[in-house]
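Whiteboard transcription, Tuesday session. T.W. wrote the C-alpha coordinates on the left side:
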Protein backbone atom coordinates (compact mmCIF):
# COMPACT_ATOMS: atom_id res chain seq x y z
CA UNK A 1 0.00 0.00 0.00
CA UNK A 2 1.02 3.62 -0.45
CA UNK A 3 0.93 5.38 2.90
CA UNK A 4 1.46 9.05 3.65
CA UNK A 5 3.03 9.72 7.05
CA UNK A 6 2.93 13.39 8.02
CA UNK A 7 5.57 14.33 10.57
CA UNK A 8 7.48 11.24 9.45
CA UNK A 9 10.84 12.78 10.34
CA UNK A 10 9.84 13.25 13.98
CA UNK A 11 10.21 10.89 16.90
CA UNK A 12 7.15 8.65 16.55
CA UNK A 13 6.79 9.28 12.81
CA UNK A 14 10.29 8.07 11.93
CA UNK A 15 9.73 4.81 13.80
CA UNK A 16 6.42 4.33 12.04
CA UNK A 17 8.03 5.03 8.65
CA UNK A 18 10.69 2.37 9.27
CA UNK A 19 8.14 -0.19 10.39
CA UNK A 20 5.94 0.41 7.33
CA UNK A 21 8.94 0.05 5.02
CA UNK A 22 9.86 -3.24 6.69
CA UNK A 23 6.30 -4.44 6.10
CA UNK A 24 6.78 -3.72 2.39
CA UNK A 25 4.71 -0.55 2.00
CA UNK A 26 5.64 2.46 -0.08
CA UNK A 27 5.94 5.38 2.33
CA UNK A 28 5.69 9.06 1.56
CA UNK A 29 6.85 11.31 4.37
CA UNK A 30 5.70 14.93 4.52
CA UNK A 31 7.64 16.98 7.04
CA UNK A 32 8.63 20.63 7.22
CA UNK A 33 11.56 20.09 9.63
CA UNK A 34 10.31 22.89 11.85
CA UNK A 35 12.55 24.39 14.54
CA UNK A 36 10.68 23.09 17.59
CA UNK A 37 13.89 21.14 18.16
CA UNK A 38 17.07 20.77 16.12
CA UNK A 39 16.02 19.81 12.56
CA UNK A 40 19.37 18.01 12.16
CA UNK A 41 18.06 15.38 14.61
CA UNK A 42 15.03 14.84 12.38
CA UNK A 43 17.26 14.40 9.33
CA UNK A 44 19.20 11.82 11.30
CA UNK A 45 15.97 10.04 12.19
CA UNK A 46 15.47 9.36 8.48
CA UNK A 47 18.94 7.95 7.77
CA UNK A 48 17.71 4.36 7.42
CA UNK A 49 14.49 5.22 5.57
CA UNK A 50 16.36 7.29 2.98
CA UNK A 51 18.27 4.19 1.90
CA UNK A 52 15.05 2.41 0.97
CA UNK A 53 13.79 2.86 -2.61
CA UNK A 54 10.20 2.54 -1.36
CA UNK A 55 10.63 5.76 0.62
CA UNK A 56 9.92 9.27 -0.63
CA UNK A 57 10.61 12.40 1.40
CA UNK A 58 8.65 15.54 0.64
CA UNK A 59 9.87 18.59 2.54
CA UNK A 60 6.92 20.86 2.97
CA UNK A 61 4.21 22.21 5.17
CA UNK A 62 0.94 20.53 5.95
CA UNK A 63 -0.79 23.89 5.65
CA UNK A 64 0.32 24.27 2.02
CA UNK A 65 -2.55 23.13 -0.18
CA UNK A 66 -0.31 23.12 -3.27
CA UNK A 67 2.08 20.57 -1.74
CA UNK A 68 -0.79 18.34 -0.65
CA UNK A 69 -2.35 18.46 -4.12
CA UNK A 70 0.97 17.50 -5.64
CA UNK A 71 1.48 14.53 -3.31
CA UNK A 72 -2.10 13.28 -3.57
CA UNK A 73 -2.04 13.79 -7.34
CA UNK A 74 1.18 11.85 -7.84
CA UNK A 75 0.70 9.03 -5.35
CA UNK A 76 -2.21 6.63 -5.19
CA UNK A 77 -2.52 6.83 -1.42
CA UNK A 78 -4.40 4.16 0.53
CA UNK A 79 -3.93 5.54 4.06
CA UNK A 80 -2.84 8.77 5.70
CA UNK A 81 -1.17 8.58 9.11
CA UNK A 82 -1.26 12.13 10.39
CA UNK A 83 1.42 12.63 13.02
CA UNK A 84 2.68 16.10 12.11
CA UNK A 85 1.92 18.65 14.79
CA UNK A 86 3.32 21.22 17.08
CA UNK A 87 3.79 19.04 20.16
CA UNK A 88 4.44 20.04 23.77
CA UNK A 89 2.18 21.54 26.39
CA UNK A 90 4.22 24.41 27.81
CA UNK A 91 5.26 26.05 24.50
CA UNK A 92 1.63 25.95 23.39
CA UNK A 93 0.84 28.42 26.17
CA UNK A 94 3.47 30.80 24.74
CA UNK A 95 2.28 30.44 21.16
CA UNK A 96 -1.33 29.27 20.97
CA UNK A 97 -2.00 30.74 17.53
CA UNK A 98 0.79 28.74 15.96
CA UNK A 99 -0.47 25.56 17.66
CA UNK A 100 -3.99 26.18 16.41
CA UNK A 101 -2.73 26.92 12.91
CA UNK A 102 -0.63 23.76 12.55
CA UNK A 103 -2.71 21.35 14.61
CA UNK A 104 -6.21 22.42 13.65
CA UNK A 105 -5.97 24.20 10.29
CA UNK A 106 -3.23 21.80 9.16
CA UNK A 107 -5.39 18.79 10.04
CA UNK A 108 -8.35 20.28 8.23
CA UNK A 109 -6.22 21.00 5.18
CA UNK A 110 -5.13 17.37 5.10
CA UNK A 111 -8.67 16.04 5.51
CA UNK A 112 -9.80 18.28 2.64
CA UNK A 113 -7.04 16.85 0.43
CA UNK A 114 -8.20 13.34 1.39
CA UNK A 115 -11.76 14.21 0.46
CA UNK A 116 -10.75 15.75 -2.86
CA UNK A 117 -8.59 12.78 -3.83
CA UNK A 118 -10.79 10.00 -2.48
CA UNK A 119 -8.55 8.80 0.37
CA UNK A 120 -10.78 7.67 3.21
CA UNK A 121 -8.53 5.90 5.70
CA UNK A 122 -6.96 8.17 8.24
CA UNK A 123 -5.04 7.89 11.51
CA UNK A 124 -4.91 10.95 13.74
CA UNK A 125 -2.23 11.32 16.44
CA UNK A 126 -4.15 12.61 19.43
CA UNK A 127 -2.92 12.81 22.99
CA UNK A 128 -3.61 11.79 26.58
CA UNK A 129 -3.53 15.52 27.35
CA UNK A 130 -7.18 15.73 26.21
CA UNK A 131 -8.14 14.13 29.55
CA UNK A 132 -6.92 17.24 31.40
CA UNK A 133 -7.11 16.81 35.16
CA UNK A 134 -9.96 14.27 35.08
CA UNK A 135 -10.27 12.77 38.56
CA UNK A 136 -11.29 9.29 37.41
CA UNK A 137 -8.44 6.94 36.54
CA UNK A 138 -7.53 5.06 34.53
CA UNK A 139 -8.68 7.33 31.69
CA UNK A 140 -11.09 5.61 29.30
CA UNK A 141 -12.02 6.70 25.78
CA UNK A 142 -15.63 7.44 26.70
CA UNK A 143 -14.74 9.65 29.69
CA UNK A 144 -15.68 13.31 29.24
CA UNK A 145 -12.84 15.35 27.72
CA UNK A 146 -14.38 18.79 27.78
CA UNK A 147 -11.88 20.40 30.13
CA UNK A 148 -8.48 20.65 28.42
CA UNK A 149 -5.98 22.70 30.43
CA UNK A 150 -3.54 23.75 27.69
CA UNK A 151 -3.88 25.09 24.14
CA UNK A 152 -2.04 21.97 22.92
CA UNK A 153 -4.66 19.69 24.51
CA UNK A 154 -7.46 21.83 23.09
CA UNK A 155 -5.99 21.55 19.56
CA UNK A 156 -5.82 17.76 19.88
CA UNK A 157 -9.42 17.58 21.04
CA UNK A 158 -10.37 19.88 18.15
CA UNK A 159 -8.53 17.52 15.78
CA UNK A 160 -10.59 14.59 17.06
CA UNK A 161 -13.79 16.56 16.52
CA UNK A 162 -12.94 17.58 12.99
CA UNK A 163 -12.02 13.96 12.22
CA UNK A 164 -15.43 12.90 13.46
CA UNK A 165 -17.05 15.41 11.11
CA UNK A 166 -15.26 13.94 8.09
CA UNK A 167 -16.29 10.46 9.16
CA UNK A 168 -19.91 11.59 9.43
CA UNK A 169 -20.06 13.60 6.21
CA UNK A 170 -17.89 11.49 3.92
CA UNK A 171 -17.72 8.06 5.52
CA UNK A 172 -14.00 8.27 6.33
CA UNK A 173 -12.53 5.49 8.47
CA UNK A 174 -10.64 7.32 11.19
CA UNK A 175 -8.79 6.11 14.26
CA UNK A 176 -7.74 8.79 16.74
CA UNK A 177 -4.87 7.45 18.83
CA UNK A 178 -4.44 9.06 22.22
CA UNK A 179 -0.76 8.45 22.85
CA UNK A 180 0.36 8.52 26.48
CA UNK A 181 3.85 10.12 26.79
CA UNK A 182 5.89 8.06 24.37
CA UNK A 183 9.61 7.50 25.01
CA UNK A 184 12.48 5.54 23.53
CA UNK A 185 15.29 6.12 21.04
CA UNK A 186 14.92 9.48 19.21
CA UNK A 187 12.53 10.85 21.81
CA UNK A 188 12.13 14.62 21.50
CA UNK A 189 14.99 16.22 23.42
CA UNK A 190 12.77 18.45 25.58
CA UNK A 191 10.68 15.55 26.94
CA UNK A 192 11.28 14.54 30.58
CA UNK A 193 13.05 11.19 30.16
CA UNK A 194 15.40 12.49 27.48
CA UNK A 195 16.03 15.77 29.27
CA UNK A 196 16.68 14.16 32.68
CA UNK A 197 19.06 11.64 31.16
CA UNK A 198 21.02 14.35 29.32
CA UNK A 199 21.23 16.72 32.29
CA UNK A 200 22.14 14.01 34.81
CA UNK A 201 24.79 12.68 32.44
CA UNK A 202 26.22 16.16 31.90
CA UNK A 203 26.17 16.94 35.65
CA UNK A 204 23.81 19.87 35.08
CA UNK A 205 20.93 21.05 37.21
CA UNK A 206 17.63 19.20 36.68
CA UNK A 207 14.47 21.28 37.21
CA UNK A 208 11.56 19.35 38.68
CA UNK A 209 8.20 21.05 38.49
CA UNK A 210 5.87 20.46 41.42
CA UNK A 211 6.72 18.27 44.42
CA UNK A 212 7.69 15.21 42.38
CA UNK A 213 4.45 13.35 43.04
CA UNK A 214 2.87 13.90 39.60
CA UNK A 215 2.52 10.59 37.78
CA UNK A 216 2.73 9.62 34.13
CA UNK A 217 1.88 6.57 32.09
CA UNK A 218 4.97 6.32 29.83
CA UNK A 219 4.63 4.31 26.64
CA UNK A 220 7.65 2.67 25.06
CA UNK A 221 8.00 3.54 21.38
CA UNK A 222 7.85 -0.08 20.14
CA UNK A 223 4.51 -0.52 21.91
CA UNK A 224 3.20 2.78 20.51
CA UNK A 225 4.14 1.57 17.01
CA UNK A 226 2.42 -1.80 17.60
CA UNK A 227 -0.75 0.07 18.58
CA UNK A 228 -0.47 2.32 15.56
CA UNK A 229 0.01 -0.66 13.22
CA UNK A 230 -3.04 -2.33 14.79
CA UNK A 231 -5.08 0.75 13.92
CA UNK A 232 -3.62 1.07 10.42
CA UNK A 233 -4.57 -2.41 9.42
CA UNK A 234 -8.25 -2.13 10.39
CA UNK A 235 -11.22 -0.15 9.17
CA UNK A 236 -12.95 1.60 12.00
CA UNK A 237 -15.75 3.92 11.18
CA UNK A 238 -14.71 6.50 13.72
CA UNK A 239 -12.93 5.30 16.86
CA UNK A 240 -10.71 6.67 19.58
CA UNK A 241 -8.07 4.46 21.22
CA UNK A 242 -5.81 4.98 24.21
CA UNK A 243 -2.27 3.93 23.46
CA UNK A 244 -0.49 3.69 26.82
CA UNK A 245 1.07 1.07 29.08
CA UNK A 246 -1.53 1.28 31.86
CA UNK A 247 1.18 1.70 34.50
CA UNK A 248 2.34 4.91 36.15
CA UNK A 249 5.50 6.24 37.74
CA UNK A 250 6.00 9.44 39.75
CA UNK A 251 8.46 12.13 38.72
CA UNK A 252 10.58 11.39 41.81
CA UNK A 253 10.69 7.65 41.03
CA UNK A 254 11.53 8.49 37.43
CA UNK A 255 14.56 10.65 38.11
CA UNK A 256 15.86 8.10 40.65
CA UNK A 257 15.51 5.33 38.09
CA UNK A 258 17.43 7.41 35.55
CA UNK A 259 20.15 8.29 38.09
CA UNK A 260 20.68 4.57 38.71
CA UNK A 261 21.06 3.84 35.03
CA UNK A 262 23.30 6.79 34.21
CA UNK A 263 25.36 6.14 37.36
CA UNK A 264 25.29 9.79 38.52
CA UNK A 265 23.29 11.74 41.11
CA UNK A 266 20.94 14.43 39.83
CA UNK A 267 21.43 18.05 40.94
CA UNK A 268 17.79 18.78 41.62
CA UNK A 269 16.02 22.09 41.66
CA UNK A 270 12.34 22.06 42.69
CA UNK A 271 10.18 24.65 40.95
CA UNK A 272 6.44 25.36 41.15
CA UNK A 273 4.16 23.16 39.03
CA UNK A 274 3.78 24.55 35.52
CA UNK A 275 0.47 25.79 34.18
CA UNK A 276 -0.90 23.34 31.63
CA UNK A 277 0.81 20.28 33.15
CA UNK A 278 -1.68 17.64 34.27
CA UNK A 279 -1.29 15.87 37.63
CA UNK A 280 -1.37 12.37 36.25
CA UNK A 281 -2.02 10.31 33.19
CA UNK A 282 -3.05 6.68 33.32
CA UNK A 283 -4.49 4.78 30.37
CA UNK A 284 -7.28 2.25 30.33
CA UNK A 285 -6.14 0.21 27.33
CA UNK A 286 -8.85 -2.44 27.24
CA UNK A 287 -10.48 -1.04 24.12
CA UNK A 288 -7.23 -1.03 22.13
CA UNK A 289 -6.56 -4.53 23.48
CA UNK A 290 -9.96 -5.85 22.37
CA UNK A 291 -10.20 -4.12 18.99
CA UNK A 292 -6.60 -3.66 17.86
CA UNK A 293 -4.96 -6.62 19.57
CA UNK A 294 -2.81 -4.08 21.40
CA UNK A 295 -0.62 -5.75 24.06
CA UNK A 296 2.13 -3.42 25.29
CA UNK A 297 5.19 -5.34 26.41
CA UNK A 298 7.88 -2.96 27.60
CA UNK A 299 7.53 -2.00 31.25
CA UNK A 300 9.26 1.14 32.47
CA UNK A 301 12.39 -0.52 33.98
CA UNK A 302 13.22 -2.24 30.71
CA UNK A 303 12.23 0.80 28.65
CA UNK A 304 14.53 3.02 30.71
CA UNK A 305 17.37 0.50 30.37
CA UNK A 306 16.95 0.64 26.62
CA UNK A 307 16.59 4.41 26.49
CA UNK A 308 19.68 5.16 28.57
CA UNK A 309 21.69 2.61 26.58
CA UNK A 310 20.60 4.32 23.36
CA UNK A 311 21.42 7.76 24.78
CA UNK A 312 24.93 6.73 25.85
CA UNK A 313 25.60 4.98 22.52
CA UNK A 314 24.59 8.12 20.63
CA UNK A 315 26.92 10.24 22.76
CA UNK A 316 29.80 7.92 22.01
CA UNK A 317 29.29 8.10 18.26
N1 LIG B 1 5.69 11.92 21.87
C1 LIG B 1 4.63 11.82 22.66
O1 LIG B 1 4.73 11.46 23.82
C2 LIG B 1 3.25 12.17 22.16
C3 LIG B 1 2.17 12.00 23.03
C4 LIG B 1 0.89 12.32 22.58
C5 LIG B 1 0.70 12.73 21.28
N2 LIG B 1 1.76 12.88 20.45
C6 LIG B 1 1.51 13.33 19.08
O2 LIG B 1 2.17 12.43 18.20
C7 LIG B 1 2.67 13.13 17.07
C8 LIG B 1 4.16 12.90 16.93
O3 LIG B 1 4.82 13.38 18.10
P1 LIG B 1 6.40 13.34 18.24
O4 LIG B 1 6.72 13.24 19.67
O5 LIG B 1 6.97 12.36 17.28
O6 LIG B 1 6.77 14.84 17.79
P2 LIG B 1 7.90 15.39 16.81
O7 LIG B 1 7.93 16.87 17.01
O8 LIG B 1 9.16 14.62 16.95
O9 LIG B 1 7.28 15.06 15.37
C9 LIG B 1 6.38 15.93 14.71
C10 LIG B 1 6.91 16.15 13.30
O10 LIG B 1 5.97 16.98 12.60
C11 LIG B 1 6.68 17.90 11.80
N3 LIG B 1 5.82 19.06 11.56
C12 LIG B 1 5.42 19.99 12.46
N4 LIG B 1 4.65 20.91 11.86
C13 LIG B 1 4.54 20.54 10.56
C14 LIG B 1 3.88 21.10 9.44
N5 LIG B 1 3.19 22.23 9.56
N6 LIG B 1 3.98 20.48 8.25
C15 LIG B 1 4.70 19.33 8.13
N7 LIG B 1 5.36 18.76 9.16
C16 LIG B 1 5.28 19.35 10.36
C17 LIG B 1 7.90 18.25 12.64
O11 LIG B 1 8.98 18.76 11.84
C18 LIG B 1 8.24 16.91 13.27
O12 LIG B 1 9.20 16.19 12.52
C19 LIG B 1 2.27 14.58 17.27
O13 LIG B 1 1.04 14.81 16.63
C20 LIG B 1 2.08 14.69 18.77
O14 LIG B 1 1.20 15.73 19.12
C21 LIG B 1 3.03 12.60 20.85
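and on the right, the sequence the group agreed on:
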Amino acid sequence: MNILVTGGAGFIGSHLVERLLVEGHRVICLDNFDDFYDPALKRRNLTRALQDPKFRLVEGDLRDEGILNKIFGEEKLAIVAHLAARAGVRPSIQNPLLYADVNIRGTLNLLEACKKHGVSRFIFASSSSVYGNNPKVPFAEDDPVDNPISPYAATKKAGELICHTYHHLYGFHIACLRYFTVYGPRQRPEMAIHQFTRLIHQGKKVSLFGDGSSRRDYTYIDDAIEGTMGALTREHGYEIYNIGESQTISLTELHRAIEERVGEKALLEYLPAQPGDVERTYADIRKAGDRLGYRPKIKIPEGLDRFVRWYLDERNK
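Someone added at the bottom: The chain has a mean pLDDT of 97.
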